[in-house]
TrEMBL record:
Keyword ATP-binding set for record: yes
Protein name (database record): ATP-binding cassette domain-containing protein
Organismal lineage: Bacteria, Bacillati, Actinomycetota, Actinomycetes, Micromonosporales
Gene Ontology MF: a single term: ATP binding
PROSITE patterns per record: ABC_TRANSPORTER_1, ABC_TRANSPORTER_2
Native source organism of the sequence: Plantactinospora sonchi
Family from the record: Belongs to the ABC transporter superfamily.
Domain ABC transporter: 11-241
Keyword Nucleotide-binding carried by entry: yes
Pfam families noted in UniProt: ABC_tran
Amino acid sequence: MTVGTDIGLAVSVAGLRVGYGRRVVLDGLDLELAPGVHGLLGPNGAGKTTLMRVLATVARPEQGQVRLLNEDVTDRAALRRIRRRLGYLPQDFGFYPRFTVREFVEYFAWLRELPRAEVPLAVDRALERVGLLDRADDRMKHLSGGMLRRAGIAQAIVNDPRLLLLDEPTAGLDPEQRVEFRALLRELGVDACVLVSTHLVEDVGTACTRVSLLDGGRLAFTGTTEELVAAGTDGGSGDSPIERGYTSVLRGARAVPR
Ligand SMILES: Nc1ncnc2c1ncn2[C@@H]1O[C@H](COP(=O)(O)OP(=O)(O)OP(=O)(O)O)[C@@H](O)[C@H]1O
């Protein structure tokens, strides 16, 4: 697979510390991501959404450096450039219920400062990629849960982002849609950096080239999908090779005193 080289390291995080009040959620995290599709796994409460929010520039780190698309997020002018080239699907996203699907996606195209002349085509293309073009004129409040999620993915990709952050994008999608979504992920990962947080390890196995596993705010594993699978050959419980890798790595990480 060819990967775009113009963005180099799309994410470079060093010594990241984030907390809520006195509670530390991410503790000295280092992470580097190049273009490609990266899975982000971890148990409930591991800190995946918190990390996504920092990378989406909607949450601020207490400590540490965050460079996105080769720019420093603490520089205001750079931050604006980063946000134009960033796509983010939050775990829970809000919308105006009376907006049509097209208006919803157009709104995000405007937020990301897409040139006005490019908006109609970009919106149609994003809706087509998620299979919602035929519902473009429906109101958001009339969509099913899976369709809403697809509208959320459409807004995240409308600006053809170089860094795409998807927090549990497959939640609520039916099996056929999930298969199509994985194909879309592989396509997007050719020249962008895509980070997908999920609890569905089979999504990672089929669509991601690399995977990072968070546990208790720390990185328990980062490597290729094959390396995670290999970690499960000497034990680990689960129904598939990648599930066994996941449980084996978690068990190993928890055996190391902090
Ligand atoms: N706004 C908040 N205020 C206080 N604590 C929070 C807040 N948001 C998250 N937390 C805590 O931070 C920790 C990490 O939460 P986070 O949502 O990042 O985990 P996660 O890995 O995404 O979990 P899940 O898989 O359940 O979505 C959890 O212990 C959570 O209770």
